[in-house]
Write the C-alpha cells for this entry.
Amino acid sequence: MEDLSKALEGQVEWARSFVFNNVGKVLARSKCNPTDSEVQELLKAYNDRDTCITNGLTVEGVDFEVHRFHPPLIYGRKADNDKTEGICLARGKNSSGDIMYLLVIYGMPYVSARIIPQQIEFFNANIGVLDKLYES
C-alpha cells in the first residue's frame, strides 16, 4: 500500500485523503489521521440518507455538513469565517470484489466540480471500480 500512499500524495490539489476498506482499516493516507471511531462512523454513512445528512461526516475532529448524498458519492463542506473545506467520500470495489472507500478533503480555491472528477478517476485507476451511480 506504500504505492497507494505515494499516489495519494501526488494529488497536490487534495489537502488530505485516505483509503480504507469495509472493516475500517486505513490502507493508505496523505496528510490525514482519522481516528478508528471516525472511520467506523464513515462506514455507516451509506446506510441511511437522512441520518447521513443530519449527522454529516467527521474527520480529524472536524465536522462537515453533507449537502449531497448520491451513492457512490457523498459530499459536503464546512465553513469557518473565511476558511472553507470540501469533503467527498467515494465507494467502490477492488479487483477482489472487496468494498473500498476513498475520502478526499480539499480547500479553496478548489471546488467539488474540479476535485470529484479527479477522485473518481483516481479511484478507478488505483483502487478498483467505483460503484455505479445510485447503486446500494
Notes: The beta strands are 16-21, 26-30, 57-59, 62-70, 73-80, 83-93, 99-107, 129-130. The two ends are 27 Å apart (CA to CA).
